[in-house]
Amino acid sequence: MEQRGRSITVRQDSGREWDDHYWWSHDGVRLHARIYPGPEAAAAAPPILCLPGLARNARDFEALAPHMAARRRVIVIEFRGRGESAFAKDPMTYVPLTYVQDVVALLDELAIGRCVTVGTSLGGLVSMLLAAAQPGCVTGALLNDVGPELEQAGLERIRDYIGTGGSQPTWVHAARAVAELNAAVYPGYSIHDWLRFTKRTHRLTPEGRIVADYDKQIAAPLRVPHGGDAGVDLWPAYRAFGDAPVLVLRGQLSDILSAAAAKKMAKELPHARLVEVPGVGHAPTMDEAEARAAIDAWIAELPAA
Q1: Does residue 167 sit within a domain?
Q2: How far apart are CA 30 and CA 17, in angstroms?
Q3: Which of 123, 174, 208, 288 lies most in the core, judged by the most C-beta atoms within 10 Å?
Q4: Residue 196 lies inside a defined structural domain of this protein
Q5: pLDDT digit string (tens) for 183-232?
Q6: Long-range contacts of range 191-198, CB-CB < 8 Å, 24 or more positions apart?
Q7: What is the count of structural domains for the chain?
Q8: Is the pLDDT of residue 13 over 80?
Q9: Average pLDDT over residues 14-38
Q10: Dihedrals φ, ψ of 12, to 5°?
Q11: Domain contains 84
């Protein structure tokens, strides 16, 4: 175990690919991240910071993170109220600007001045806001099915289900419930795919029930009038990536990021590239062959130092 300031790194067990790292937010919430060390030869390269979606956690990157860690260090954050990060006392802190502050606190603790971001949905919004708040910090970005323009229909769908639902008696029951809710997002999934997906997004309680692995109060800010709407023009935040390599992934069936908005994003920045992942909605898991090939090409473009 290594302790630095108010942060703690728990060294990996034999056979495990990551170290558990804990740090504290400015309002006293204990937060968690997985750190994949990466190759020693790439120690000077800006690390890749993975930022999950609204109801997701570090397991969302359980396949992608070790793949990227073959090239450089990878840090997978769990936002407050998710996974091993503690629940917030004030549910109205479950908002993007607070998540940015939590990320900055981690970067400060680890003395990281520059990083590369991989953000799914909410994580992509946090990535854009981080680039705007910390000029020069983000030297490359992957935005997974998110951008400065979001479709209202998709936002309403998320607002309707987030924070709802109860527990299930078995993983199969939970997978079937998740499949029913998300059938239009991943129409080609088998029950085995749904089980894998559910084990990334749910957890087993001490009572032996299966529940979503997040604080249901993350929905509180979405319940206020216009909750979940950006309320501000996010194009300046997107443009804050400047000439950094930017990969925009879009699910072909997405109801959050429109094809028109994605194309506009690709044209807006000099080194932005759009790749559409066929047959999936919001959001690609980034395990798809098309997504993985695009990610590998994007990593090859990232600055080495």
Answers
A1: no
A2: 22
A3: 123
A4: no
A5: 999 999 999 999 999 999 999 999 999 999 999 999 999 988 665 555 67
A6: 195/171, 197/285, 198/171, 198/174
A7: 1
A8: no
A9: 93
A10: -65, 150
A11: yes
